[in-house]
Amino acid sequence: MNLKNDLLLRAARGEKTERTPVWMMRQAGRILAEYRAVREKAGSFINLATTPEMAAEVTLQPVDLLGVDAAIIFSDILVIPEAMGLPYEMVEQRGPVFPSTVHTLEDLQKLHVAEPETDLKYVLDAIKITKKGLAGRVPLIGFAGAPFTIFCYMTEGKGSKTFSVAKKHLYADPQFSHTLLQQITDSTIAYLKAQVAAGADIVQLFDSWAGILSPEQYRVFSLPYIKQICDAITEVPVTVFAKGAFFARKEIGELSCSVVGLDWNMDIKESRELIPDKTLQGNLDPCVLYGSYEQIRVEVKKMVGQFGTQRYIANLGHGVYPDTDPDKVRCFIEAVKEYSSL
Ligand code: CP3
């Protein structure tokens, strides 16, 4: 189906756009009262994520309520470990927890490469329902965690400031680490291909914990696996967002992806120089949205001025914080549209 608004896809492909497309990481979530109502009805995050009709409903909400130029399918990066045989729980106010974790090659024999058509059918169904609901209004973004970030959760079992349990394995048992990273990579490639077949128009890889690695470790334990995924997904544009990996921008810029996401620690001009031939996405500090309407407009104008209106997808530098006022979010989105119109 032809899209009525394909700004995001044109920007991703490096084509001219009459204005900069804008969306927000974590836009389908707790900032919206309408999300919280569906979440309440579902009873739990996991029930919401695994019920395709409800997942589709909250995916559509930001398109209707915020005016973003893309929808992102409501799910989580942790569905991949679950599909591989390592289930997670979402603990209220605390975040994800894995009741069991993996630490030895023997543990890995109990896992399997995810089979998306069975293990992740609920996500594929949610994508199909969402595409019908969108009726071509805006593109749909699919996503997955980058292998290293998924590795962090599967070994550490929960969030952490240092992920020292996860990182210990990289030094102490590189063979275990590479075997698990490859299993995750194979699962992710199958999963993203299935998302595209179900209707995803572009896919994003979240390497949320990239910033805890040294440049050398990043080159050994993260980049090669991201590269395999970028090389395998040829059907649609791929976005790589490696939070905190300012030191790897040049290498990420050389991958076969179309878009590179930036966080707010990354200087815009320097990033353009390091990544000259790709579309950039980002990178407003989510805390700017706690400022006044005037402050938000000033910061957005500065950001668009630095990126320029072309080869650019406006976003925050990480997910929007749950206690952000939706009116401030609307101000951010409107400001991008206004300041980037040719
Ligand atoms: O709108 C969207 O972006 C789509 C939905 C989405 C969720 N998680 C829903 C969610 C996406 C893209 C994610 C990705 C995700 N999940 C990442 C990568 C992006 C990032 O933020 O770095 C990571 C690291 C996770 C793992 C995860 N899921 C954590 C650490 C938490 C707890 C912290 C938190 O935000 O609550 C989650 C829970 C989660 N995932 C919620 C939502 C809406 C909140 C739970 C709820 O609503 O009950």
Automatic annotation (TrEMBL):
Subcellular location: Cytoplasm
Alphabetically ordered keywords of this record: Cytoplasm, Decarboxylase, Lyase, Porphyrin biosynthesis
Top-level taxon in the UniProt lineage: Bacteria
This protein's GO CC annotations: cytosol
Reaction(s) catalysed by this chain's protein: uroporphyrinogen III + 4 H(+) = coproporphyrinogen III + 4 CO2
Uroporphyrinogen decarboxylase (URO-D) domain span: 21-30, 141-157
Entry keyword annotation includes ATP-binding: no
InterPro entries: UROD/MetE-like_sf, Uroporphyrinogen_deCO2ase_HemE, Uroporphyrinogen_deCOase
E.C. number(s) listed in UniProt: 4.1.1.37
Residues the record marks as site: Transition state stabilizer: 76
UniProt GO MF annotations: uroporphyrinogen decarboxylase activity
UniProt-listed GO biological process terms: protoporphyrinogen IX biosynthetic process
Major location category of this protein: cytoplasm
Binding-site residues for substrate, renumbered to this chain: 26-30, 76, 153, 208, 318
Pathway: Porphyrin-containing compound metabolism; protoporphyrin-IX biosynthesis; coproporphyrinogen-III from 5-aminolevulinate: step 4/4
Role played: Catalyzes the decarboxylation of four acetate groups of uroporphyrinogen-III to yield coproporphyrinogen-III.
Similarity remark: Belongs to the uroporphyrinogen decarboxylase family.
Assembly and oligomerization: Homodimer.
PANTHER family, sorted: METHYLTETRAHYDROFOLATE:HOMOCYSTEINE METHYLTRANSFERASE RELATED (PTHR21091), UROPORPHYRINOGEN DECARBOXYLASE (PTHR21091:SF169)
NCBIfam families registered for this protein in UniProt: hemE
Protein's UniProt name: Uroporphyrinogen decarboxylase
Gene: hemE
